[in-house]
Amino acid sequence: MPELIAAIIAYNEEAMLPGCLESVKDVTNQMIVVDGAYRHFPHPEDVCDSTDATRAIAECYGAVWIECPSGGWTTQMDKRSAYLLGDPGDWYLHVDADERLRGELPALSELEDGMSYRMRVKWAEGSLNPWAVRLFQHRGLMQYRGAHCALFSDGQLISRRTDAESIESAYLLHLKGQRSAQRQHDKQTYYAWQHDYERAFRRQWSV
Question: For residues 130 and 54, what is the distance between their CA atoms, to the nearest angstrom?
Fold first, then answer.
C-alpha cells in the first residue's frame, strides 16, 4: 500500500522542528529530516551538520535522519532531492521546519495517481496566502533541479503550480515571524543568492 512521507529539510532547527513534526506525525507513515548547511554560506565553526538538538529531536519522533555531506550541500535542490527515498506510488508532503500542517489532508485513496497537489502557505503575521506544490507522488526517477521548487520525474517537470490540483481542506501555517532576527537575516541572504542562481531556469520553466 502507498505511504505518506513527511519530508523536511533542517539546519539547527531545535526551536522549530518539534512543532513541525508534531503537526504531521499522526497523519503520515514516515518522516524524513535532511540536515545540513550550504557550502556557499558561513556556518558556525565551519561545521555543516546541526550543532544543536535538531538530530536528537528528529530521532525522538522516529524520523529518518539524513546527514549533511562533507562540506555542506551545494544547493537546496541537492538537499531536497536527498529525501526522495520512497517507493513508486508513495506520496511526499514537503513541510519546512517553520511550518505547521493545519486542517485535514485527503486520504491517499482520494488522490489521483500521477498528480501533484498545491496547498496554501499562510503567514501567521500577515494575509499573504501563496500556493505551492507540496504533495506529490513518487514516480520514475525523481530529482529537484534548476530551482529549489522544480521537481522532475523522468525528466518531466511535475511541480508547476498551474498544472497541480488544489487542496482546500488543509494548509501550511508559516511561522516566519517567530525566528530570531539573525536567523531571518541569514535565511534571506541565502534566498537572495538562490534566486539569482535559479533566475535563468525560472524564466525558462515559469516555476
Answer: 28
